[in-house]
Design brief:
By secondary structure, this protein is α/β, with parallel strands linked by helices. It has one domain: 3-Layer(aba) Sandwich (Glutaredoxin), CATH 3.40.30. Helix content is about 45%, strand content about 25%. The strands form two sheets. A six-stranded mixed β-sheet has the order 1-8-7-2-3-4, sandwiched between helices. It has a two-stranded antiparallel sheet with strand order 5-6. It is globular and about 70 Å long. The protein starts with a helix and ends with a helix.
């Protein structure tokens, strides 16, 4: 009798999760796809970049499930920008895994686009950046070489000597046209 009840409960749970997976994206609109933020960033490696706009993505160099499709979309977005705008926009990949080879993040992200930058950080700096951007990250319980992580995209604007987090894109796939519009809007303000 208990097995039958557990079976029914499991079946109901699977149905509820399936419905949520199908229905939840319908509630996401342009308004929730991009969250406007106004946060000053005092992170040294972010401050040293010369681009007016940076799109920042956190992942790890051996990720296949999340990072590859997101970085392909970022390359598509970057390649669609006019040269004048592209010269002011940088794409930064921050590796959360602290790989053994410090060049690995750059090699990985440049396989998607040679203009992209990969950033290697030590464990302390990774923690600092993860906290500043509120990135979800944890080692996989199944495979310790893998990480579970959020796939948000962060748009950072340079204003004078300061960098400001302006938008967080939370939906997948990324709203590429919305991102382009936000970039154009900000560059119009900074040009």
């Amino acid at each position: 009798m208990k097995k039958q009840i557990y079976g029914i409960l499991l079946f109901v749970l699977i149905i509820i999760i399936s419905i949520l997976v199908v229905v939840a994206p319908a509630f996401l609109s342009e308004h929730t796809a991009a969250v406007k933020a106004e946060q000053e960033l005092n992170l040294p490696l972010i401050l040293n970049d010369d681009k007016n706009i940076q799109l920042i993505f956190f992942g790890y160099s051996t990720c296949v499930d999340v990072c590859i499709p997101r970085l392909k979309k970022l390359s598509q977005l970057y390649n669609s920008l006019d040269k004048k705008i592209k010269d002011q926009v940088g794409i930064l990949f921050i590796d959360i895994s602290v790989p053994a080879d410090p060049q690995q993040p750059s090699k990985y992200v440049r396989s998607f686009n040679p203009d992209f930058k990969g950033l290697y950080l030590n464990k302390t700096a990774v923690r600092e950046y993860i906290q500043a951007f509120r990135v979800f990250s944890s080692r996989s319980l199944v495979n310790k070489a893998e990480y579970n992580h959020s796939s948000y995209l962060y748009l950072v604007e340079k204003k004078g000597q300061k960098k400001w987090l302006r938008y967080i894109y939370k939906t997948a796939p990324y709203p590429l046209e919305k991102i382009k519009d936000n970039i154009k809007e900000l560059i119009g303000e900074t040009s």
